[in-house]
Amino acid sequence: MRVSRIQAAENRQTVIDVASRLFRERGFDGIGLKDLMKAAGLTQGAFYKQFASKEDLAVEASKRALEGASRRWSDAAVKDPDDPLGAVIAFYLSGDHREEKMDGCPIVALGSDAARQGPDVKASFETGIKAHLEVLSRMIAETDDEQPSGKSMAILSTMVGAVTLSRVVNDPDLAQAFLDAAVKQVRESVGA
């Protein structure tokens, strides 16, 4: 049965959404096309009608995940206009976010995997990381007169590192201690 162009476009978006979540949970190489397409409710044969390769899908899924993550930061900031950085810190460096394996930060979930991928996947991550830095730079500029680029890089590095470390330890107290230490360090670095 032939699929309409509209349905094909919807199917493509579904596959990208599902891949975005499953790649964050299992890594780029942690799920095969058959299982990925099954999770999207489609057959493996439909994959090659939508994507040139798994790497092509990884590029699109990475873009989707990073755009969503950047949007979550902006949404958190909008909810507390008096302390937008504090709102992002509270959301990002939380136990709830630490546990969001499929919907959490793609930089944390896939950063080391992305480093081993081709230049197109890395370009998606670079674009997403720059978007995060822009959000942070705007927030810092509102509270500090210094040039925000270096400071925003340090803050992003601290936050990503803290969530990463909190996910790789078994001890829940140590996991929380990484998040708490990052909150303190980020607040001190901006004088908040």
TrEMBL record:
Family annotation (SUPFAM superfamilies): Homeodomain-like (SSF46689), Tetracyclin repressor-like, C-terminal domain (SSF48498)
Pfam families: TetR_N
UniProt keyword annotations, A-Z: DNA-binding, Transcription, Transcription regulation
GO terms assigned for molecular function: DNA binding
DNA-binding residues (ranges): 32-51
Annotated HTH tetR-type domain residues: 9-69
Gene3D superfamilies in the record: Homeodomain-like, Tetracycline Repressor, domain 2
PROSITE patterns membership: HTH_TETR_2 (PS50977)
Protein name as catalogued: TetR/AcrR family transcriptional regulator
Natural source organism: Bradyrhizobium australiense
